[in-house]
Amino acid sequence: MLVLGLETSTAAASVALVDGDGLLGEMFFNTGRHVSRQILSLISLLLKQTGVEFEDLEGIAVALGPGSFTGLRVGVATAKALSHASGKPLAGVPTLDALALNAAGVTGLICPVVVARREEVYTALYRWQEGRLCRLIPYQAVTPASWVGYLASYNEPVYFLGDGVQPFEESWESLKEKAVFLPPENSFPRAAHIARLGRERLSRGERDDIFQLKPLYLRPPAAVYKEL
User: Fold this and answer.
1) ∠ CA 161-163-165 to the nearest 5 degrees?
2) What is the pTM for the complete model shown?
3) Count of domains in the chain?
4) 148 contacts 172 by C-beta, under 8 angstroms
5) pLDDT at residue number 226
6) I need a labelling partner for 196 at 20 to 30 A (CA). Which of 13, 46, 60, 109 fits?
7) Which residue, among 105, 77, 9, 86, has the nearest Cα to 47 in the 3D structure?
8) Which of 61, 70, 69 is nearest to 98 (CA)?
9) What residue numbers bound the domain in which 92 lies?
10) Is residue 90 domain-shared with residue 66, that is, in the same domain?
């Protein structure tokens, strides 16, 4: 199954093509220039460079968040429009699940952290079990201070990755030798992982209703708070 993946959850944006043999191509940009708004151009360029026709696609996968409200709106709206126009099945994939895959093979707790508003991070916990990445707790928005207290209760190494590592590094370092930081290159979710996880869902016969699928915000956008 040939699947197109879209990832626009953070300051970076990427698109990728995955089939049964693996990754065919991926384009990733972290320029801070609202690349998510140029996602259609990126898709067109990726298809051209890989020699794949849009008609050949068998599914579309998109990052649902949590993450940037604007980026998620653009990515999800684009994926839904492509699915609606072409009739190709659509699968949404939580961003934290895809980000955690950047820690392939790590032995210990995997903790992706994505910058949120109000000095918080979006996060969850994962562990590799019998060759599969398993999420241990629900997705949540928390303050670094409260999250560190929770992580300390595990009394084992915690592998951090994501764009929320550097801004709150002092908080994570309070775990001392238990805190392990993965390379900066692992800080952003990748469309390749979105496509892979989406392909797994679609291969199981799971597809999302384009009229019901919504971004996973975890909490309302800032504009909503101002209205309350």
Assistant:
1) 55
2) 0.93
3) 2
4) yes
5) 36
6) 109
7) 86
8) 61
9) 3-96+188-227
10) yes
